[in-house]
Structures are given as structure tokens and as C-alpha cells.
Amino acid sequence: MYLEQINQPSDVRKLNKEQRTELAAEMRQALLEKLSKHGGHFGPNFGMVEATIALHYVFDSPTDKMVYDISHQSYCHKMLTGRKDAFLYEENYDDVTGFSNQNESEHDFFILGHTSTSVSLACGLAKARDLKSEKENIIAIIGDGSLSGGEALEGLDFAPELESNLIIVVNDNDMSIAENHGGLYRNLKQLRDSNGTTECNLFKAMGLDYLFVKDGNDTEQLIEAFEKAKDINHPIVVHINTQKGKGYLPAEKDRENWHYSGPFEIETGKSVYSSNRENYSDMTAEFLMEKMKEDKTLVAISSGTPTVLGFTADKRKEVGSQFVDVGIAEEHAVALASGIAAGGGNPVYGVYSTFLQRTYDQLSQDLCINNNPATIVNFAASVYGMTDVTHLGFFDIPMISNIPNLVYLAPTTKEEYIAMLDWSITQKEHPVAIRVPGGGVISGGESITRDYGNLNQYEVAQKGKKAAIVALGTFYSLGKEVASEIAEKTGVQPTLINPLYITGIDEKLLEELKAEHEVVITIEDGILDGGFGEKITRFYGASDVKVINYGFKKEFLDRYDVKEVLHKNRMTKEQIVEDILDIIGN
Amino acid sequence: MYLEQINQPSDVRKLNKEQRTELAAEMRQALLEKLSKHGGHFGPNFGMVEATIALHYVFDSPTDKMVYDISHQSYCHKMLTGRKDAFLYEENYDDVTGFSNQNESEHDFFILGHTSTSVSLACGLAKARDLKSEKENIIAIIGDGSLSGGEALEGLDFAPELESNLIIVVNDNDMSIAENHGGLYRNLKQLRDSNGTTECNLFKAMGLDYLFVKDGNDTEQLIEAFEKAKDINHPIVVHINTQKGKGYLPAEKDRENWHYSGPFEIETGKSVYSSNRENYSDMTAEFLMEKMKEDKTLVAISSGTPTVLGFTADKRKEVGSQFVDVGIAEEHAVALASGIAAGGGNPVYGVYSTFLQRTYDQLSQDLCINNNPATIVNFAASVYGMTDVTHLGFFDIPMISNIPNLVYLAPTTKEEYIAMLDWSITQKEHPVAIRVPGGGVISGGESITRDYGNLNQYEVAQKGKKAAIVALGTFYSLGKEVASEIAEKTGVQPTLINPLYITGIDEKLLEELKAEHEVVITIEDGILDGGFGEKITRFYGASDVKVINYGFKKEFLDRYDVKEVLHKNRMTKEQIVEDILDIIGN
Q1: How far is the alpha carbon of A498 from chain B, nearest alpha carbon, in Å?
Q2: Which residues of A touch B122 (CB under 8 A)?
Q3: What are the Transketolase-like pyrimidine-binding domain coordinates in residue numbering (chains A, B) (predicted)?
Q4: A111, B369: Cβ pair inside 8 Å?
Q5: Left (φ > 0), alpha (ψ -120 to 50) or beta: where does A170 sit?
Q6: How confident is the model at residue A256 (pLDDT cuts 50, 70, 90)?
Q7: Rounded CA gap, A143 and B581, in Å?
Q8: Domain annotation for chain B: domains and CATH numbers
Q9: Pairwise CB contact (< 8 Å): A204 & B200
Q10: How far apart (Å, rounded) are the C-alpha atoms in residues B10 and A189?
Q11: Are A118 and B339 in contact (CB under 8 A)?
Q12: Of the residues A45, A382, B290, B577, which has the fewest C-beta atoms closer than 10 A?
């Protein structure tokens, strides 16, 4: 087995043509076995086996530096740079993360997991090299799906300004997560169809030199192209035509569903775990599709992740022009939503919290200054969301809730979520964002109809005294448990509040609490700094009421255990009860 | 005079060719007179006179809808849409803002003032039109300088997906504020030089139809082109070659300095007010240029506003490759800086606070997760900054200071600013941002050397008791005045603290204050929600110490008076003293 003998990239250079072919087969087999047990990004890596071999055959990593966009195509790179064990042996599977990581290997230069950043980061490495008068090759590897992101396009436009070595490998498998969207993909197709010869060429129009590789899964063609690009004295794009999921039939056939895969049976490709669990994505699509029948201006928007809103391929087809996937282009998505609302349409943009980070300025300028009634549904904004450091979703409250005019709502149950969504797409007064609760779907039992236009009126679930518990969104049920425990331990019922609104405080209610409460506590599913609880604390700053805020420390967590995070932030029921009793006594 | 008779766009359509020529001359004269007295965006508007006449001649606003990117080229549009008085009569000059504004006229559809948004917003109007099965023309007007912004590129890429009418007028005057930077500008030049016939065409490569107008200051050529584009059933770019500053010799000759102009003498073009006031921009360039001599990896970065860092054309020339203007591409600027730092270079990115809003995700993902030692200098992050609603700079603290790993510093004097900048470019541990103080430059008298690497150690300027005043950045001097007044009125010296760090609290110091202080107040030059003061308040939440936070209400202000804003937020010395005395007694 050749893969077992690859301890560093120079070992790849010892192989001859036949051995390289064998190595590719071994890498695919290792990927297949690991991913069948462990899950991971499937399609992109299966397409990049040969290109990664060719890159390490031609270039001298880590002197020559490779930056893999978003990292979804970096598993093969990891295999060839001293990390093969994490793909060969089950006990080592978790030795590596799913992302590039400079702390893991000297062959990685950044921790990265958002799309469209590689060209700009590589430009930085190239500029540093030039300032230091050094000579190594800098290589960015970016998938076609990532090209539509503003940061990538800014990077491509800037690259020619360097006037020095920079090699941008465009891994074109003709797919984003789902199908691509955007005019530039027509140009990529023209380039593929013409063997790279079409005169009208996006990359050349951006000022870049250009090379095309017809079969991006042919190691020898790739080596030839990379040899040409090596040590070049200006930026060049090497456009390689690869096949997503190459070498595994189910993945070749259904490229959208095999972009990422959970554990599966190798023989059939069937998922090991089947989940019919109720979830907010499906619920959202179902609700919106019903409403779309009555309101022809209602339009769902996605930025490259259509299923976050529950819009699977069949549902997209069903609603036709009432669903828009803008491709990976979050900034555009928010501005588009604002424009649609300004034009009298009814837009709902669904997005993962970690990617909404791309849109602070669009939320502020395009949307909120104009006060346009668009709806944003923010998914995985929770400690129960994605746990990789590059995909954390719990920084959203400080980021977006402090933008004026925005109404940011925190439902606690599925009924409340639907009621808020229903209100939002009906009203015409405010830009609204809704924070989908984390953890499993909780039902409150009864359906809710409420006009949330009476801003910042919190809901008092239970009037009590001494302690008041203001429990936001996800952690409302925790707040409820704390309240019961306090009642049980002290014989005095505390007040329990569902604040509903993240973006404002209910001054009247908070003022009233002063009379019979010694302590107010807040619990939120986000970092404390700049968050919801601090607003309550500020309100009581000059009063005698004591306030304790529960939330997370401001820090980048990585692949964490939720229970541990809650415990270390004193957010278990027991810890909170203890703190409250410390103040109000038993 | 024809301009006097233009009360609505339909009045433009009554004019014949000669009359249109006369109208253009009158519009230039009116612009010249107003801007000579009032100041404003000069170059872009002088170049757009004929195109605006042609647009309103061909299209039927407001049924047909025009969106002017960034609004710097919208003055002529205002003149022809019922707002001529604001350009003809001095007493009416302030009747209009410098920006598009739907509250000002039915011919405007958005309040906008950041670059690169028009295409996406227009896509939204077009999508809403399509959903409503209507037929009007949607027109985006965007300058060449704005094309390099990620949001604009995302919009151009998405536009073809509409498959319906959208007209994108690219106003190409071959200039951003300063010269353009980016490979796409080479393509624009090829297109201009070939009369639009070059096969390799950025817009076509994005999937857009294309028309070229050789002389974008010839109304008749423009009318012909717009007539062709009118009612077209797919997105098209009309690329018009205009002359920035056209018709006023000083502006034609020095296009960078005449992009925007303060009041000037019409005969000579000389500025009416000459300012030799000390300022942070010049100070920064001077300091960096000195350091660049010793450190060849030190590189200053700008995103289209080079003079914010003090780098005028001559200084840019002097430092050569140690200055990089990435064009309008803030996201790229932050990622580039992170890449340079990762590669061992020493980047300093200077930016206006309002534009740093573009980079939340890049700050978080590209920079702070990687903990790379880049320096960001944030200008006009103050109530004393720009006062237009689209250019407010005082939302930065909630936005960026709650990102982990970032060290955000708030100097109070020029000596402190330089000491912080000096420390930042020397250290290799942290990404650092420095918040340039607002208002005039204040000197503390003596130069400072300090290792700011001991994070979150506040400076106690004066130990006292009963009240402690934590006064951040710009408002340190206000805090000092408050302290004096309290001492005078009560005979007891309060404690005065310069916190220096926005991103963390000095827990040890705050703990010590508990012993002899009844009240702690914080003063910051930013909104209260999610800001600095709330962190202090949270610290004291469960203690007996009372806290009052001073800062601004979360709201979009527009063209405000600073004194009024401070007064209504209870931020005058008198108000703060009154509040403190209420708690500690006289």
C-alpha cells in the first residue's frame, strides 16, 4: 500500500505514474471507509484526489504554500501531509478536524471554514513573501461554488495587482452544495465546453492569466499544468474540470445529497441513521409553501444552502419563482430581500447564523436604515448548533441585535416560532429576524396567534416574587425548571418571563419588578458580551435590584461538548438555583 | 432658463436637442455655484449631467425605477425630479440630503450611501416587479469605482438569474475616489479603448448583455443607447464612458482631490477654508513612514480611501510597495491583512468605522480565529465623525468588540494613540484594532511608552472614593471634567479611570473599587446597547455598587447636532454630575 508510506509530501514525489494511479485508488478507498463510518464532506474530496496528488508532486509544501478554500476539499491534502493515519485507522479518525488548521500541521496556514476566503488569504501570503523578497509559490485552491461570494470576487479582482507569483486553482465540479446560481457559471460552462478557449473569460476579464485542464481527475494532465504554472511571475488561474463524488456511484449520481454525508452503508449508499425527527427547516418550508399559495409576492431566499429553509429540490421545483437561491452570496441575499420588500414583495431569507455574519453592513445599511419589512430566519444560532470553531452560531446577538430598527425575536416553542413567522410576513413596519431555538423542537401544546407589533412587551408566564427569571429562546425551558426548583426549595414562587424580543427591553415590566424582587436573572443561548442580558442589567444598574446574567464567555470554542460548556459557564439548573439562593436565601 | 421649469421628469421630455444641451450647461452652473458655497461630491456629478438628462428623457420615473449607487452621482437626478430649488437657491440648499432618500422624493427608493449596493437593491425591485407581474424598467446606476466591492460583484453575478428586465448603467469615469485598483479595471480600459468590442468582457462573462457608449457626456448618444435598452426582457449593462469633473477645469485636472470638495473660489478652484489643523490621518502616515524605513515588512493598507491613513498621492509614491490600496473591497482588505500577518509581514489597515461594517465575518473568521497580529486603525468611530445616517461611525463597539481574541484599544490623546500603534506593530500575539478618538486632537503633553500586552489593565488616573468614573477614549476629558466638578461640589475626590481596553474588563481593579465606591459610571462615544459600559455593569450586577452607563441610544441619527445628541442622552458634564450627586449626595 502506497498511502501507508506517505509521511510527507516528498514521499509523493518518489512515485511513478502507475504508483500515483494506485495511490489515488487507495485514497478514495480510505475516504470511503472513513466517511461511511464517520461522515464528512464527501463529494468535494472525492473529486480532488488526483489534483491533490498532482499539487504535492509539483510543489514543495510547506515552502510552497497551499490555501484550501472552506477546507471541504482538504481531506486529501491532509492525507498527503503527514496525517494519513486519521484516514486509515478508525482509532485515529478524530485526530484531525474537518478543516485546515495550522495548529495541526505546518502544511496548513489558516483555520478556515467559511467559503470564498482563500484567494484573499493567499494574496496576503504572497504579499508577505514579496515584502520579504522571498520566492516560494503561493497556491489558492477554490471550488466553483465559492466563486460567487463577494470576498472571493474581491480577491480575484485584487490578485493581478500583486504582479507576482500566485496560482489560483479553480476546482470546477459544476456544483455548489446544490446546483450553482449566477451568471458566472454560464461562463465556466463555456470554458469547459470550449476546452478553455472561449475568448470571453471571466478570469482574464479580471486581469488574470489562465490555463485549462480538461480532465481534472487525470493526475498526469494536472501535473503538466501545474508544472507550467510553477514559479510563474504573475497571478494565474488553473481551471480544472473535476467530477464531484468521482469514484463512488451513488455520489456521482446524486451530487447535492452527497456534498456532505453522515455515516452510510458502502454497498448501497444508504444512510445508517434515518431521521424523521421534526425539525424547524421542514416546518418552515411547509408553512411558507402554504402561505405562498395565497400571497404570490411571498418569496423564500437562500444563499447556497436551500435545505436550511427546508426547500429540497422537489419543493424548489414546486414553488418555482417564489424560491430564489442566490448562490453563495449572503450580502446580495440581504440586499435583494430589502429591495424586494421596497418593491412591495414579501421576502423571507433563511440562513445559518454563522453565515449571516457576512451581512452586518447589508443588515444595517440596505435593510434597517430603510426599515424595509423583510424577514430573516436565523438557524443554528445556538450552542446546540454546529460545534466547529469556524461554524459557531452563538455570536449573533451582539452582532445583529444592536442594529437600530431591527426586531429580533426569540421563540421558545414551535408554535411561537410559527406565530412569529406568520406575524412577520404579514406586517409592513419592520425588518424582522427570528432566532430559531436550539436543541430539539419543543411544543407548547396550543397554537398561538399574536400581534408582535407591540414591540418589547415581554410575556409573564408566572407572577411571583423575590426572584425573577428572564429566560430567552432556547433556554426558556431551563428558566422554567429553575423557577420550579426555587419554588420548591423556598416555598416562594419566583416570576418567570419569556422576553420574546431580543432587541429591546420591556421597561414598564422591569420597573414593576423592582417592587417585590431582589434579584433578576437572565439566561440566553449566546455570549454574554454585548448580549441580551446586559441590556437588562443596564436598566437596573442604578437600582437596588441585583442582576445575574447567564450566557457564554466570549471565546472561540471548537468541537465542544454542550454539557461541559453549560457547566463551565454556570448554566446548569443546579448552579443557577444555587446562585439565586445565595441572594434571596432559602 | 430651462432648469427652472423642470418640475418633474416629464418636463425633460419636452425639450429638444438644443434645449437639452442648454439644460446640461445650466445644471453644471447650478452645481458649480452650490458646491462652491456648500461643498459636496463634485467630480461624479459633473460627469453624470448628460446621462441623467438622457435617463429621464428615455425612462418614465417613478414608474421606471432608478437606483443610484452610493448617491454620489445623484445630484443631477435630484435636480430633474422636483428638487431643483435645492440647487438653484442658496436658501434651499439644505432642503435635500446628499443621498438618495425615499422620504424626500417618490423618485428615490432607498436611503443609501455605502458603495456597491445598487445592483442588488435593483435586483430586489426587479424581482418584486416580476412577482407582481408588472412591467416597468428597473435601472441601477453604478460607478466604476464601486464595481470592485463584493456586494456589487455578487449582484452582477446574480442579475442574469432574473431573466427579466434590469438595466445596469456603468458610469465609467476611470476613477474611484483615487485611482482604481483591481484587474477588472484593465478590462474596462480595454472596453473603452476598443469601443466596447473586446471579446473578453467582464460583464458578458458574468452572463450579462452589453452595450457601450463611447461618449458618456453626449446626451444624444446616451439617449440612443437607453432607447435600445428600454423594455428589454433580460439584464443588460450599458457601459458609458464619462469624464469625472467634466466642465470645470480644476476638477478635470485633479480628479482625486475634486471627487469631493469643500467650499471653494470658482475662479481659481482654491479652497475657501484652509486647514492646517493637526489630525490623526497625517500623524499616522508620518509615524508609519518612519517605521517603514526600519521594517520592510510593514505595509499600510487602504480600501479606496488612502488619505484616511494620511497617504496622499506623493506619500503613496514614496513608500512604493509598502502601501497597498485594494480598491473598494473592505472584506478583501481584512483577509489580506490576516494573510500578510500569517506570512510574517506587518499589516496596518486604516478604514472609516462605517465601512469597517463590511468586514464582520472577515474580522471574526479570517483574522480573529487565526489570532493573526494585524493592526486595524478605525477612524471616525465617534459622534464627532460623519453625521449622515449612512455614514455613522459609532456602532463599532457592539459590532467588533464582542469578537473573541481581538484587542480593541481606545486612546485618549495623540501620545497614547501613537504608543498603542507602536505597540501593536511590534507585538505578534494579537489582532489589534485602535479606535481613533473623535473631536480635535488632544495632547497629553508627554510621549508614552507602554507595553499594552498586559491585557485589560486599566489606568487609574486618580484614586478617590464614593464615585468612580470610567471614561473611554474620546470622552476621557469629559470624565476628567466631571471628576473635578464632583470633587469641587462634594469635597471628596472621585476615582478617575482611563480604561484603554474596550474588549475586556479589569476585574481586579473593579473588585477593589467595591470597597470605597457607591457608584461607578461609564462614558463612551458609542451606542449603549452591546457597548463597553454594559460589560462593567454586568460585572457589578450582583453587588451593591450602582452603575450608570453613558452613551447613545440605539437609533439611526441623521445630520445631527453633536451638542443636541449629547444633551438628549444626558451626556453633558452638568447632567452627569447631577446623576452622580443624586446617588452619593452632596
Answers
A1: 20
A2: 339
A3: 278-443
A4: yes
A5: beta
A6: confident
A7: 63
A8: 3-261 (3.40.50.970), 280-435 (3.40.50.970), 459-584 (3.40.50.920)
A9: yes
A10: 45
A11: no
A12: B290
Tell me if B125 and A342 make a contact (CB, 8 A cut-off): yes
A329, HSE (Cβ side, Cα atoms, 13 Å): 35
Shortest distance, CA B128 to any CA of chain A (angstroms): 5
Q: Please judge whether A343 and B127 are an interchain contact, meaning their C-beta atoms are less than 8 angstroms apart.
A: yes
For A283: left if phi > 0, alpha if psi spans -120 to 50, otherwise beta; the answer is: alpha
Check pLDDT > 90 for residue A502.
yes
- Please state, in angstroms and rounded to a whole number, the distance separating the CA atoms of residues A383 and B155: 33
Are A150 and A144 within 8 A, CB to CB?
no
**Distance (Å) from the alpha carbon of A299 to chain B's nearest alpha carbon:** 8
Question: How many other C-beta atoms can be found within 10 angstroms of the C-beta atom of residue B583?
Answer: 14
Count of alpha carbons within 13 angstroms of residue A254, beta-carbon side: 9
SS3 B110: coil
Chain B CA closest to residue A339? B124
- How far apart, in whole angstroms, are the C-alpha atoms of residue A483 and residue A467? 9
From the list A110, A201, A347, the residue facing B205 with the nearest CB is: A201
Which of B68, B162, B324, B361 would best serve as a mutation to test chain A binding (most A beta carbons within 10 A)? Answer: B361
DSSP A195: T
pLDDT band at B528 (very low <50, low <70, confident <90, very high): very high
Cell readout for B331 is 472584506
Q: Find which of A194, A361, A528, A583 to mutate to test the B interface (most B CBs within 10 Å of its CB).
A: A361
Phi-psi region of A196 (alpha: psi -120 to 50; beta: other; left: phi over 0): left
Three-class secondary structure of residue B46 per DSSP: helix
pTM, two decimals, is: 0.98
- Beta strands A495-498; A459-462: pairing state: antiparallel
Task: Convert B393-409 to b/e letters by CB count within 10 Å (16 or more is b).
Answer: bbbbbbbbbbbbbbbbb
Task: Please give the pLDDT value at position A255.
Answer: 86
| Residue B256 pLDDT | 87
**Candidates A345, A534, A556; nearest CB to B128:** A345
Report the alpha-carbon distance of residue B41 to residue B48 in Å, rounded: 12
Nearest residue in A to B550, CA atom: A538
Q: What is the DSSP string of B177-219?
A: SSS--STHHHHHHHHHHTTT--S--HHHHTT-EEEEES-TT-H
Residue with cell 431555538: A437
CA distance B312 to B309: 9
CB–CB contact B340 A125 (8 Å): yes
Write the ipTM.
Answer: 0.98
For residue A538, list chain B residues with Cβ-Cβ distance below 8 A.
528, 533-534, 537, 547, 549
At residue B43, the pLDDT reads 86
| Residue of B157, B181, B341 with shortest CB distance to A329 | B157
What three-state secondary structure class fits B506? coil
Cα four-point dihedral sign B322, B323, B327, B328: positive
Answer whether A125 sits within 8 Å of B342, measured CB to CB. Answer: yes
From first CA to last CA, the distance across chain A in angstroms is: 68
% of residues, chain B, pLDDT over 70:
100
- Residue whose C-alpha is closest to residue A126's, from A117, A116, A118, A137: A137
H or E stretch covering A121: helix A118-131
- How far is the C-alpha of B577 from the C-alpha of A136, rounded, in Å? 62
Contact assignment for B357 to A365 by CB distance below 8 Å: yes
Asked if B131 lies within 8 A of A297 by C-beta distance, the reply is yes
Task: Answer yes or no: are the C-beta atoms of B342 and A109 closer than 8 Å.
Answer: yes
Alpha-helix residue ranges (DSSP H) falling in B196-279: 202-205, 219-229, 249-253
